[in-house]
Design brief:
Layout (H helix, E strand, L loop, with lengths): L4 E8 L3 H12 L4 E4 L8 H4 L18 H10 L6 E5 L7 E5 L1 H14 L3 E3 L3 E8 L2 E9 L2 E12 L5 H5 L4 E3 L9 E8 L3 H4 L8 H9 L12 E3 L6 E8 L7 H25 L7 E3 L11 E3 L7 H5 L7 E5 L3 E4 L6 E4 L8 E4 L11 E3 L8 H7 L2 H21 L8 H10 L7
Parallel strand pairs: 1-2, 1-8, 2-5, 8-19
Antiparallel strand pairs: 3-4, 6-7, 7-8, 9-14, 10-12, 10-13, 11-12, 15-18, 16-17
Bound molecules: flavin-adenine dinucleotide (FAD).
The site of flavin-adenine dinucleotide has 37 residues, from helix 1, strand 6 and helix 11.
């Protein structure tokens, strides 16, 4: 019989939100176990290597906190492994591009420095609920099933399986269950930027339309979104989108990934044959699986709404600033849009209460499972904001455990004040 794991805090999921939660809590002195189903940390960062940290500069100021620290640590390496550039799409402002392998190295260093016990290839499978509390969480790794007992749990799994099983209400996708499309990304090497980007259209619309008309590209590739990769003459391709996939179902993910591979291959052949500059390019860093934009949005004490963000609301318990557009990506039959969420020079903040369930005193959640309506979700889901949500949840966990209170009793204004002290910008 295996010994059970014990911890002050269990963080489920090692995406950007889980990374933020674990580092923030470890730095406050909590004993933290971070459980990640995959072999890397980063979540979408690991599934779509090279994905920029977008929307990091609302009103041209970095959101601050761990994302700023990470950028600075990467940018300070020799040679530098991160830099800030303008996004070529409208309404996104500046973004951070980085070397994805060096980002893994530095993120693991930060976890190590914070004393986090990282368990990779380990899946949290079910909560053990006693009354309203989560007493323990069952997990599975190569040694078989076991249990971790933690005083508090933060669900950063994106999909929120454990929270849902523990009884937290949720909405899957939008009100009619439609979820954003999933994407298989890749990087092209040996694509000279001066030639490739000479026309200045980030969607390569003229070429994409020809490819679709000729039957060489899937109709959903009528816009081929490509951007400069971190290293010179590399191109990051975030274009192959598969609609109608339920990201909580492993068989649908497998099918979408295989379909994605087919479309990536077709796209590569088309680019090499038809688009100036790509003739000698080759594909690398094809995602190991599709990146999932949206599944469950858990119900928190507060649900951020499209109306809140349009009004540029700054909440007293706001924990991160955001001015990202409504970045909707092919929900159902829908299109790809990124309309401005707020007027020029405005921004809104995300209230801490969006990370707190109503009924469970020792559970928080953070990242893309945040409590938000479909419009607000489409704006707040950027990686810098998800990392800050994790940072806030990790900070709040320390407050709750130090005071011996349930998470619903945490004063969100105190969390906001601590986030401000940790360098977060634009908070009340
Ligand atoms: C294709 C795509 C393009 C995007 N483009 C951008 C962009 O350009 N810029 C930007 O800033 N944002 C972008 N986003 C949004 C952003 O990447 C995500 O919203 C954000 O990364 C979500 O982070 P997360 O940590 O909440 O979840 P995820 O990244 O989904 O991570 C969740 C982690 O939890 C793990 N996990 C799940 N269940 C369990 C379990 N039961 N036990 C253990 N581990 C578990 C998963 O393996 C995963 O590693 C994009 C998203 C996608 C999918």
């Amino acid at each position: 019989m295996r010994a059970e794991l014990q911890a002050d805090l269990l963080v489920i999921g090692g995406g950007v939100a889980g990374f933020g939660a674990a580092v923030a809590a470890g730095r406050q002195g909590l004993g933290v176990v971070l459980m990640e189903a995959g072999a890397k940390i980063g979540g979408v960062m690991a599934f779509c290597p090279g994905m920029p940290w977008g929307g990091a500069y609302p009103r041209d100021e970095i959101v601050g906190g761990l994302i700023a620290e990470l950028r600075d640590r990467l940018a300070g390496l020799t040679p530098p492994a991160a830099e800030t550039r303008p996004c070529t799409l409208e309404n996104f402002g500046r973004e951070i591009v980085y070397d994805p392998d060096m980002a893994q190295v530095v993120m693991f260093e930060m976890l190590e420095e914070a004393g986090i016990r990282v368990h990779l290839n380990t899946v949290a499978t079910a909560p053990q609920v006693n009354g309203s509390r989560i007493d323990a969480v069952r997990f599975h790794d190569r040694h078989g099933p076991s249990v971790v007992r933690a005083s508090l749990v933060i669900d950063c799994s994106g999909d929120g399986d454990i929270s849902a099983q523990a009884g937290v209400p949720y909405e899957l996708g939008d009100a009619s269950g439609k979820m954003m499309g999933v994407t298989l990304s890749f990087l092209l090497v040996n694509a000279p930027w001066d030639t490739v980007f000479a026309e200045g259209d980030p969607y390569f619309t003229r070429h994409a339309e020809r490819g679709v008309a000729a039957g060489r590209l899937h109709p959903d590739l009528a816009k081929i979104y490509m951007m400069k990769g971190f290293h010179r003459d590399t191109v990051f391709c975030n274009s192959v989108i598969i609609r109608g996939v339920d990201g909580t179902k492993p068989d649908e993910i497998a099918r979408a990934t295989q379909e994605g591979r087919r479309r990536c291959r077709e796209l590569l052949a088309f680019l090499r044959d038809e688009v100036p500059g790509f003739g000698n390019a080759w594909m690398t860093s094809l995602g190991p699986t599709v990146g999932v934009r949206e599944t469950r949005k858990l119900e928190g004490l507060y649900r951020l709404t499209g109306r809140d963000i349009a009004a540029a609301t700054k909440f007293a318990d706001g924990i991160v600033a955001c001015a990202n557009p409504i970045d909707d990506v092919m929900r159902g039959e829908g299109a790809m849009t990124h309309d401005a969420a707020v007027a020029d020079s405005a921004y809104y903040t995300l209230p801490f209460r969006c990370l707190v369930p109503a009924g469970i005193p020792n559970l928080l959640f953070a990242g893309r499972n945040v409590s938000a309506d479909p419009v607000a979700f489409a704006s707040i889901r950027g990686m810098p904001q998800c990392m800050a949500m994790g940072q806030a949840a990790g900070t709040a966990a320390a407050i709750a455990l130090d005071a011996g209170i349930g998470v619903q009793a945490i004063d969100g204004r105190e969390v906001a004040a601590r986030m401000k002290a940790q360098g977060l910008w634009g908070l009340a």
